[in-house]
From TrEMBL:
SUPFAM superfamilies: Dimeric alpha+beta barrel (SSF54909)
Protein name: YCII-related domain-containing protein
């Protein structure tokens, strides 16, 4: 079976996509701590060794919000969600550790 290849994005397509990302970043303001970037070569490590990840994580960003509801609000209209109906975003909260003072 031959797989269909996706049409390569034109420079104009890429510019439109980048503009959508920049507009999203602008709406996040100071809450966007790190724009992040694309991810490749995902690896799952276990006691038995390293294996290809089955999570299909393709990118990351670092946000700062008061709570998960605030993070969810920042992600409304995120360009990744408009790419394809299978696209999704997971949010993970970093637990604050007590100061070691």
């Amino acid at each position: 079976m031959q797989m269909m290849q996706e049409k390569a994005a034109t420079p104009e397509d890429m510019q439109v996509q980048m503009q959508a990302w920049m507009e999203w970043a602008g709406r996040c303001g100071e809450g966007l701590l790190e724009m992040g970037g694309p991810m490749v070569g995902n690896l799952k490590l276990t006691n038995e060794g390293g294996f290809p990840s089955d999570k299909n994580v393709v990118g990351y960003s670092v946000l700062q919000a008061e709570d998960m509801a605030g993070a969810q609000a920042m992600l409304e209209g995120h360009p990744h969600l408009g790419l394809d109906s299978s696209c999704e975003i997971e949010t993970h909260e970093v637990m604050q550790m007590p100061d070691k003072a």
